[in-house]
Amino acid sequence: MSSQEKNFSTSRRSFLTAAAAATVSTALPASGEASAQAHGKAPAVQSRKRPLNVLFLMSDDMRPELASYNSRFHTHSPNIDALGAKGVRFDRNYCQFPLCNPSRASLMSGHPPHLTRVLGNRDDLRKLHPDWTTLPQLFRQNGYTALRSGKIFHGGIDDPEAWSIFDGSTESLHMTQEARPMNLPHALIPKPDGSVPPLPTDAQAAHSDQIFVLDGNGEGAGDYVVADRTIQYLRQCKDKPFFIGCGFSKPHSPPTAPQRFFDMYDPARLTLPPDFAAWPTVPDGFPKAAIRPRNADLFIGRGASESEAKEVIRAYLASISWVDWNLGRVLAELDSLGLRDNTVVVFVADHGYQLGEKGKWSKAGSLFEGGTRVPLIIHAPDAHGNGRPSLRVVESLDIYRTVAELCGLEVPEQIEGKSLMPLLHNPGAAWDRPAYSIWSEDGKTVHGTAIRTEQWRYAEFGKDAANGAMLFDVHADPMELKNLAEDARHKDTRDRLSKLIAAYSYPV
Ligand SMILES: [Ca+2]
User: Fold this and answer.
1) Ligand 1 centroid to 252 CA: how many Å?
2) Of 4, 77, 142, 287, which is most buried, counting CB atoms within 10 Å of its CB?
3) CA 464/CA 246 separation, integer angstroms
4) Ligand 1 centroid to residue 435 C-alpha, Å
5) Tell me, what's the pLDDT at 161?
6) Exposed, middle or buried: residue 441 (CB in 10 Å: 0-12, 13-18, 19+)?
7) Is the pLDDT at 9 greater than 50, yes or no?
8) 125 C-alpha to ligand 1 centroid (Å)
9) Are strands 88-94 and 376-379 parallel, antiparallel or unpaired?
């Protein structure tokens, strides 16, 4: 065994330890046991011959633009939708930070971003917290084989303690198939002040203007390889307990998919959001701090014409459909190996994205629904709520505790978030926890904090909202077009939510 391999061959002792733990406490009440629990009787314990495995599927920059989440684009996402129909689909799940590394560090460590202190894409969670136990690490310590394919932690900042094999590979970024760049026409869209800026020349901006088209099914490229490797790991681990992380890197820019996924969408039929603007635009009545003046992922330093915007939305949807297709290959393998009934399957994205709303083409700085709402599906075998969606507000931070408890693993002290077990059992159960998301402009201090309840989204910028606030009734105004923060009729609501933000301690 090479020095890079740790616990890859699961010892019998650790296997038995994990198996015993799983047998004692994992099972959700089976049918009929719920009422017994409601009357104060302990539910019957369901025994398992083997511990539950975990297949942890992630996507990058995917807002819930999926058919089952009522995407207005009718996205072709049959595999994710089927997974959601099999398990519990959380329709109001929120990330804690709209940027890759901070969001993933929070989710995988079970601590909110103001405690991880990972507030930018260069902070290293493991270096900051050598003693913390990340989620895959917890499984590895309990005798599981923990393997990663693709992007689970941030690219280039993987957690060496998390995985049974750590090779620091970045296979999700490799492309062995030549991708055809499709350059968008550089329309010169004047700025709101009438000036026309020069076309961006820096490498990042040039890169951001490209869409990549692949041949066939994308064989040999990016997420195809991530799925292939996951399938290989499933075959390798089918007879021992595993935690396999499968991290797709799309629809993160540059949008990439085989031609046939582009063909699923007609750009002429795609509609732009009502607050679409060619440039990042602060609408009347909104604080400037809510909209970063420069895009970070697409349309960097230049305006977007309506036709270009539709081409990019089409490419984003095609990328989602390609992820969905690859995810379907992984789940088909899980089925063919007979592992579905013994495996907890999680699907989540790191954060959302703005697709032209308020002129934004990025997640960075977005404390709107677009930037913070992400799909979350959990299929736990025997969960009583399987097949029903949950409308309760939950956080990606809740995943750590939930998955650990599902598998009967003792959760380390200090882990935050709340177990979603009650919602997996009864998706409509009472639930009064709000979701929080923060943003840091400089990676050091918190510049904005948002709170989401079932009816309201409220965000403050600067300490005590020194740089403004925004309040939306998300039932009446799902597109977040009208800021109610200064509306006297909603003062009580604002005051109540403001107090919650103040209590959500963070360094300012
Ligand atoms: Ca991301």
Assistant:
1) 6
2) 77
3) 40
4) 19
5) 93
6) middle
7) no
8) 16
9) antiparallel
The alpha carbon of 149 is separated from its chain's Cα centroid by a whole number of angstroms, namely 16
Sign of CA dihedral 21, 26, 27, 33: positive
Residue 443 · residue 103 · CB < 8 Å: no
Beta carbons of 251 and 209 less than 8 angstroms apart: no
Residue 62 has pLDDT above 50, yes or no: yes
Rounded to 10°, the helix 100-109/399-406 angle is: 40
Q: How far is the CA of 150 from the centre of ligand 1 (A)?
A: 13
Give the C-alpha separation, 489 to 477, whole Å.
Answer: 16
- Band the pLDDT of 50: cuts 50, 70, 90: low
Distance 351 CA to ligand 1 centre (A): 6
CA 104 / ligand 1 centre spacing (Å) = 8
For ligand 1, the distance from its centroid to the CA atom of residue 46, given in whole angstroms, is 38
Show Cβ contacts of residue 393 under 8 Å, excluding neighbours closer than 6 positions: 92, 94, 431, 433, 434, 435, 452, 453, 454
**Residue with the larger pLDDT of the pair 185 and 375:** 375
Report whether pLDDT(14) > 70.
no
Identify the structural domains of the chain with CATH numbers, from first to last: 52-427 (3.40.720.10)
How far away, in angstroms, is 58 Cα from ligand 1 center? 10
pTM, entire model: 0.89
Amino acid identity of residue 317, one-letter, is L
Mean pLDDT of 86-105: 98
Contact 449, 437 (CB under 8 A): yes
Cross-strand bridge partners of residue 448: 439, 461
Q: Which residues pair with 93 in a beta bridge?
A: 394
Q: Are 380 and 408 in contact (CB under 8 A)?
A: no
Ligand 1 center–CA 102 separation, angstroms: 9
Rounded-to-integer distance, Cα 490 and Cα 121, Å: 36
Cβ–Cβ under 8 Å, residues 456 and 473: yes
pLDDT tens digits, 177-190 = 667 777 776 667 88
HSE value, Cβ hemisphere, 13 Å, CA-based, for 149: 23
Q: How far is the CA of 261 from the centre of ligand 1 (A)?
A: 21
In whole angstroms, how far apart are CA 332 and each of 57, 87, 132, 231, 239?
14, 16, 34, 9, 17
Q: And the tokens for 196?
A: 């026309």
> How far apart are the CA of 33 and the centre of ligand 1, in A?
40
Extended strands (E) in 129-268: 145-150, 180-183, 210-214, 242-251, 256-258
383 is written with which tokens?
């969960």
d(CA 280, CA 292): 7
> What's the CA-to-centroid distance between 99 and ligand 1, angstroms?
6
